Amino acid sequence: MIDVDGTQLGIYTVRDALKLSAERGLDLVEIAPQAKPPVCKIIDFGKFKYEQQKRDKLQRKNQQVSLLKEIRLHPNTDIHDFEFKVKHAINFLEEGNKVKAVVLFKGREMAYTEQGEELLNRFIERTQDVAKVESPLKLEGRNMNVILAPAKTKSKKKQ
To answer: Cα(80)–Cα(5) distance, rounded to whole angstroms?
Structure first.
C-alpha cells in the first residue's frame, strides 16, 4: 500500500487498507492489480480523476492533427493546371498536412503509365523544398499515387 505522499506503508489486508483509508477520509485505489501482491494507493479519487482529465485535455490541445489532402491529376494534365495544383499542394504542406498526389487513368490511358510516372516525378521535384516523399510511387489499379509529408524545417517557419 502507498500513502498520499508516495511513501510505502507496507503490506496490508484488504480490510485493514480500507479501514485506514476511511479513517483519513480518502479512497483506496488499486494501481497495479497484476502485481504480487496488488498495489493500492490512498488518494482522493475525485481529485485524481480531475487532474487526469486536465492532463488529457492538455495533451489533446498540444497534439498536432495532420490531414491527408488529395490532389488528382490525369496523364494529359496541361502545364497551367499542373502548376495550379502544385501551388495548392505547397499550401497544404505548409499548413502541416500530408498530400497524396494521384494520377487517374481512364480507358486506354492505362497503356501510358510512364506519362503518369513522369508527371508525378515532376510533382515531387516541384515540391521537394517543402516536402519529403513518405511513400514512393505506386500503381494501384487505375491509379498511380505518391504520398508527400511536410519537411520539418519549412512547416515550423510557417507556424
So the answer is: 67
Could you tell me the CATH number of the domain that includes residue 72?
A: 3.30.110.10
**Integer Cα distance of 153 and 9 in angstroms:** 51
Q: What is the DSSP letter of 142?
A: T
Question: Which tens digit of pLDDT belongs to each residue from 118-158?
Answer: 999 999 999 999 999 988 899 999 999 999 999 875 434 44
For residue 39, what are the domain limits? 14-62
Distance of CA 78 to the CA centre of its chain: 35
Residue 6 resides in a domain: no
**Main-chain dihedrals φ then ψ at residue 15, nearest 5 degrees:** -60, -45
CATH of the domain at 50: 3.10.20.80
Residue 124: count of CB within 10 angstroms of its CB? 17
